[in-house]
Each structure stands twice: as C-alpha cells, then as structure tokens.
Amino acid sequence: MNLTDMRALVRRDLHDEDSENYRWTDDELNRHISHAIRDFSEAIPYEQKTTKTTTSGSREIDVSTVTDRIMVEAVEYPVDDFPKKYQRFSLWGDIITLLGEEIPDGSNAYIYYGKLHTLDVSTSTIPAVHEDLISVGACGYAAVEWSVYAVNRVNVGGMPTPEEFMKWGREKLNHFRRELKRLGRRNRARMRSLYKPYYPPVSKSTDYGP
Asked: CA angle at residue 125 from 82 to 85, to 5 degrees?
C-alpha cells in the first residue's frame, strides 16, 4: 500500500468519497496520516541495522548520521562473533558510550535501532497487517480536527454534528492508542540474555537494605 491507497482507505472510513465535494483536502489527510505513522513508529519502529566505525581507544560511537532514529536497541561489538557479543551502553543525544570491558580498536560495530516508518507515493515500510490501524488513527485525527474547526461555523447537519464527529474521532483515537500500547515495543518480550541494561532492574519484592 502506498500513500494514495492509504488516503483512499481513510476517505472510505470517513465517508468522504465525493471527489466534487471533499470535506478534507489531500494535504490535510496526508498530515493526519503522517501523525498516525509517527505515533505508530514510536510504538512499533521500523527495525534497522547499520555499521559504524569505532575510534581506537574511545568508547564513544557517533550516530548522528543515523536519521529518523526512534531508539537504539542493541550494540554488537566486536562484530560477527558467535555467539554475538552485545555491549552495555548508554545513549546521550547522538553519542553511544560503551560501558563494558571491551574498548574499541577502530573496527566496526553494528547498531540495531528503530526508525520512523515511511509511507509515500511509491514505498511503504508499514506491515500490511497494521495498515488498517494507521487508517483508524488518521481517521481519528481528521474527525477531531474537523469537529474543532466546525464548532462555530454554520453546519447543514445541525448543531450536534461537530459533537458527533468529536465523539467518533475520540473513540477512533482511543482504539488506536490502546492497540499501540498493546502492540508496542515496551510491552514486547525480547531476548536480552546476551546483554544487560545499564540500569539493572529493581526488585519489587526484595528489600536489600541501605
């Protein structure tokens, strides 16, 4: 599915398919679709891997050229060993700092990260199974935006129409956000036995004392 297909899907769900009398322009729907994609990307980023060259004797790796980055999942160094060697790290701004015993020697490191999804006129990184969810989010944003715009304007549908759009839009957004929370990366169990987080988990049942 490309952006044109997605926009048509959103119009269908909004019952806005009369090309002679669109309620939303293409640019407006594109903006709402983009908003939904950003929310989706934050919860379910596009998983990527890139190679970065380290600096001999330095624990810092500059990832400023890794564009549209949402998060960094893991750092593999040295690379291509088996089992793989994942390093503890911290991220501040565009600098990854390795915190383990391994000090880079100038060789490559693999950065596993999540980035913004792409949906344009020719390409899409959104899994087909989640395309309807993007439409739900875009419809919600579009309905809420239109209801706010229409509140103080003459409306042939009567006074309840903006309120109905607001209610319908909020219901769509609530469903969209519930699904993002359910599917999101923070709720997904991932195998992390090969590397440990910088901040160890705090027990909720054991008091270790001062």
From this structure: 15
- Are residues 111 and 53 located together in one domain of the fold? yes
C-alpha 16/C-alpha 165 separation (Å) is 13
Both 122 and 32 in one domain: the answer is yes
Output the pLDDT for position 163: 82
Based on the fold, state whether residues 35 and 125 are members of the same structural domain. yes
| CA distances to 10, 25, 139, 179 from 166, in Å | 17, 19, 11, 20
User: CA torsion sign, 167 to 170 to 176 to 178?
Assistant: negative
Residue 122 class from Cβ within 10 Å (0-12 exposed, 13-18 middle, 19+ buried)? exposed
How many domains, in total, are found in the chain?
2
Domain extent at residue 62: 47-115
Using alpha carbons, select from 173, 115, 118, 141 the residue that is nearest to residue 1: 118
Which pLDDT belongs to residue 148?
Answer: 79
Q: What is the pTM of this model?
A: 0.81
Question: Do both 28 and 84 map to the same domain?
Answer: no
Indicate whether 160 belongs to any domain: yes
Same domain, 58 and 156: no
Burial, 203: exposed, middle or buried (Cβ in 10 Å; 0-12, 13-18, 19+)?
exposed
According to the model, what pLDDT value does residue 165 have? 83
Q: What is the mean pLDDT of each run of 10 residues along the chain (210 residues)?
A: 96 92 94 97 96 97 96 95 94 95 95 96 95 97 85 50 86 96 73 46 47
